[in-house]
């Protein structure tokens, strides 16, 4: 079992913090940013707050399980990469067995929680996302193909389907459009981070796109996916009957995202050295973009100002 002490602390509180770290709470926060607004859209206003709470708890546990099992499988890679070298399974503050048991228990508890307190459609969707992230992305795609984050990112799109199904016990085209928005958002979000830590991934022999392609190729792909993301976000207007609030939000935030993506592409085309590309600007803005867009998703059904010709 794990010891109650490590290189950076000791005691029960420290150990609990180490297990929480395995769940990657910062990533979970981003998933919840997309879940809650979709519940507002599905409800056509403010959803049942107890249902929101139950969905968030279940979603947090499920995502935490996936991230913990990812840490368990990738502990050899994490030990090589500087960015991940302080993770608990690398430093030894949590044993591999402890991490595996913790992740498995979280997976079981989250599935039962969602099934019994929300509905079974949401539970199965969360479980499918977990299994795809662990087996599809972590075990199969990540170490074998430069398209790993493209297809593996589908697991991170599932919270919008879970949020919609939690309210309606069904799915809809609006939910699938938002699924595709996040699908197209994932590469422009993650590839800039991979550009910044290119040498880390190369050292760990993980074929992220910036490792196997020139930076101008990566930047071009980022721009292409960015356009697909913005155009897909606008498809929600006629399909979901969105009003002025969401439309203006999607247009303005999308224009800023495209501007930043093309700034990166222009820098790469000019032959700027990697140190001058500043890809983390786009990485950080991508988080802001997703937050702003989904705030628009939540507010539009509450303060609905209909567009001409849109039901």
Describe this structure in words.
- The protein is mainly α.
- It has 16 helices and two strands.
- It has helices at 12-22, 25-43, 49-73, 75-80, 88-91, 96-117, 120-141, 148-152, 158-168, 173-196, 198-203, 209-212, 215-240, 244-269, 274-277, 280-302; strands at 5-6, 9-10.
- Strand 1 (5-6) and strand 2 form a beta hairpin.
- The protein starts with a strand and ends in a 9-residue tail after the last helix.
From the N-terminal CA to the C-terminal CA, the straight-line distance is 59 Å
- Multimeric status of the protein: single chain
Strand order within the widest beta sheet: 1-2
Order of helices and strands: EEHHHHHHHHHHHHHHHH
List keywords for this structure.
311 residues; mainly alpha; two-stranded antiparallel sheet; 2 strands; 77% helix; disordered N terminus
Brief description of this entry?
The chain has 311 residues and is an all-alpha fold. It has helices at 12-22, 25-43, 49-73, 75-80, 88-91, 96-117, 120-141, 148-152, 158-168, 173-196, 198-203, 209-212, 215-240, 244-269, 274-277, 280-302; strands at residues 5-6, 9-10.
């Amino acid at each position: 079992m794990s010891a109650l002490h490590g290189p950076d602390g000791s005691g029960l509180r420290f150990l609990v913090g180490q297990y929480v770290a395995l769940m990657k709470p910062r990533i979970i926060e981003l998933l919840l940013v997309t879940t809650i607004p979709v519940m507002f859209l599905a409800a056509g206003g403010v959803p049942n707050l107890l249902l929101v709470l139950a969905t968030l708890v279940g979603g947090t546990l499920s995502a935490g399980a996936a991230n913990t099992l990812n840490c368990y499988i990738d502990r050899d890679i994490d030990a090589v990469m500087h960015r991940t070298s302080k993770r608990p399974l690398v430093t030894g503050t949590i044993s591999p067995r402890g991490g595996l048991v913790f992740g498995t228990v979280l997976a079981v508890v989250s599935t039962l929680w969602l099934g019994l307190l929300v509905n079974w459609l949401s539970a199965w969707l969360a479980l499918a996302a977990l299994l795809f992230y662990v087996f599809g992305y972590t075990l199969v795609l990540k170490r074998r193909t430069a398209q790993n984050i493209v297809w593996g990112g589908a697991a991170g799109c599932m919270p919008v389907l879970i949020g919609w199904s939690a309210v309606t016990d069904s799915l809809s085209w609006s939910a699938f459009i938002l699924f595709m928005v996040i699908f197209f958002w994932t590469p422009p979000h993650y590839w800039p981070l991979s550009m910044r830590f290119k040498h880390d991934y190369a050292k760990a022999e993980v074929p992220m796109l910036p490792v196997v392609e020139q930076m101008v190729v990566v930047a071009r792909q980022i721009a292409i996916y960015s356009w697909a993301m913005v155009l897909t976000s606008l498809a929600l207007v006629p399909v979901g009957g969105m009003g002025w609030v969401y439309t203006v939000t999607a247009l303005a935030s999308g224009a800023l995202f495209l501007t930043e993506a093309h700034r990166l592409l222009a820098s790469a085309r000019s032959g700027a050295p990697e140190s001058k590309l500043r890809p983390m600007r786009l990485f950080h803005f991508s988080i802001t973009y997703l937050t702003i867009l989904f705030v628009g998703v939540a507010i539009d059904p509450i303060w609905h100002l209909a567009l001409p010709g849109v039901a």
